[in-house]
Amino acid sequence: MCERHKLAEAAGRKGLSVFDALCCRRRGSDRYGACPHFDDCAYLNQLAGMPESGAVVIKTHAMLVHDLQDDETAPGLRVIDESPLSALIEISEHRPDFIRETLKAKAPQVTEELVRFLSTEVPVSSLTASPHELRHLAEELRRLRLAHTSPGSSVDTLERQIRAAPDQRQNRHAARILEIIADCMEAGKDRPERLAVRPRDPASDHPTFILTDRTELKDDIPTLLLDADADPLILSQFFNPGPVERVLLRPRAEIIQAVDHLHSRTMLKRDAVRARLRGIIEAEVFRDKLAGGRGVLVVTNKPIVDLFRLDAGLAQASKTNGQQIFGAEWIWFGPSSRGLNNWKDFGTVIVIGREEPSLGGLETQARAVFGDGEVPLNLLDGTQDARLPESLTPFLMADGSGNAAMVTRHVDPRCDALLQQMRETGMRQAFERLRLSRADRPKRMLLLTRVPVPDLPVDRLCTLSELEPPRFIRALMEATNASRALRLTAKGLHEDAPHTFQTVKAAERWLERGGSSIVKAPMPVIEAFMNGAGGDWGSSDVQVHPGQDRGRAPEIRLQISPPR
After folding, report:
1. 333: which of 111, 154, 355, 483 fits an S-S bond (Cβ 3.0–4.6 Å)?
2. Helix pair 108-119, 168-187: axis angle to 10 deg
3. What is the CA radius of gyration of the chain?
4. How far apart (Å, rounded) are the C-alpha atoms in residues 76 and 63?
């Protein structure tokens, strides 16, 4: 919409006010030196002609931290869809000597003390500057503006001016550091939690520190937040406290959770583990086809999606979210699939593992959201045993029975609230792509992790082996997918399902060890396999030939219904 959008992007990267740099200059209420497109700018005129009341304006989460335009009135109601947390916190890493570069010749003694303070764990009492002096320096940094742009100039001139401009983000970060240290001094604390010194990297001679910050929206604009995963403890850091209404919707689905493995990223890198899971996925795809072919969605971490894609022999793809692998569509945890309805009509969802943040990453976010509050954070990173402890966490069982699993939890409830936002609700956001509470027919969910999801009623807990299809079903899948019947003799089993029974001898051993009773009465095994699949499957889709006519071998055939 902006005629000079490339310049706007460059100015934004420098942390400059795009309006002042490219639209027009301001001196009080007067404006001058405007861009030649100023009067008819489609971007600036988006709100032109809007009624004074009753209008609905849609903005991104990022606009929550920007001031209203001069001619824009405050909304009567602000409605936020989904969590805006990522837009309200800022995490940046710096070298301590960037303070020296930013302050330059201002207060040299204070500058050197600040560099030392940001390089080590010394307390704020080691600084000779007062909170007032630090705030004065911060104000000077914030007053620095780009003084030599002329919005009415040519594109080439503006490119040179923006390139030569100081990075205002550095000034803003330095000012915020000074303010945080001043706050810490006035509160009588040793160190600000929002400034964390990182251990020196052996591969580098330069220490670094992390600045974490948040934007508070505790204004007087009435706000309605629509978020199924909202946490009051986290929200209280950004908004004025208000009532939280919780509406629990029972998913219209059979929910089965395998609790004998966490399926961490390290574990899922093993070929044998992925091969085992592939068998379960292909069985669910087969089950879904027999039930009418609504579709199967698999959710896991993005690097693991890529490994399964390579297992399937698929070429490198720039975008794999939603790609079909082993007959199912795949997405990964995170924001890239949130809000999408592409899979609302699918019949089955399989969740493999969970998104487990690192301890350092979790506690860095906790510093940004909760840091420097009245009660210090109980942080574990950097301690002798820097890892999350496990504690007993209950499942919500659909039948009211009790069960629980040992799951990693953080000892600080504020950090633990963030952990659940990233991990448990990350799983919920992913499997809710099937819109389970609004399903017109029952669906099926497999959770392949022992981490309980809060408020999710589980129908059955099991082990991974209980979800693996029995050998007879694997043979039936192989024959059916090859559009042939499965003959129920040793030779027929081998020839019709050669991957399941690689030799006639292997089929004979299976028949001797109990397989003969299955081939004589296959329907109970098939019905047990199809239980919970929903859809349009029925026993009429199974054709069994007893093999009594003219010496014909007994055989069984499954009819796959066309997708609906």
Report:
1. 355
2. 80
3. 31
4. 16
